[in-house]
Amino acid sequence: MSIVKLLVGPLLAWAGGMVAPVLDVGTAVGGAVGLGKEAGAVIEASRAEGIAQWLLGVLAWIARPAIVIIWIIGAGFILVARRLASRGVLSRLLH
C-alpha cells in the first residue's frame, strides 16, 4: 500500500495546496467583473476552503483503494492477453 501512498499522496497534497489560491483568484475575478466584495463575502460565508479540504480527504479515502483495484485488473488483463497471444487467438481476432 506504500506505493499507492507514493502515487496519490503528492497529487492530493498539490490539490490541497491549490485550494486557497484558486479561491483567491475566484474572488479577484469576481471583483474584476463587477461582483465586488459580494464574491469574497460569499466565499467567506460558505467556508469554501474547509469544504474543499474535506472533499479532498474523501477523494484520498476513495482513490487509494481504487488505484489498487485498477492495478490488479490491469495486471489480470496483461496475463490474459499473454495467454491469448501465446495461443494465437489475438492474431486471429485482429485479422
Structure commentary:
The chain is an all-alpha fold and 95 residues long. The chain has one domain. Helix content is 92%, strand content 0%. The protein has helices at residues 2-32, 37-46, 48-87, 89-94. It is elongated.
Set out the fold topology.
Blueprint: H1 2-32, H2 37-46, H3 48-87, H4 89-94
Short description:
The chain has 95 residues and is mainly α. The protein contains four helices and no strands.
The poorly predicted ranges are none
Approximate strand percentage: under 5%
What's the N-to-C terminus distance? 41 Å
Rg is: 23 Å
Structural class: mainly alpha
**Series of H and E elements:** HHHH
The pLDDT mean sits at: 75
Helix content: over 70%
Instruction: Give a quick account of the main beta sheet: strands, pairing sense, barrel closure.
Output: none
Q: What is the total number of structural domains?
A: 1
Outline type: elongated
Number of helices: 4
Please give the number of β-strands. Answer: 0
Provide key terms for this protein.
95 residues; mainly alpha; 4 helices; 0% strand
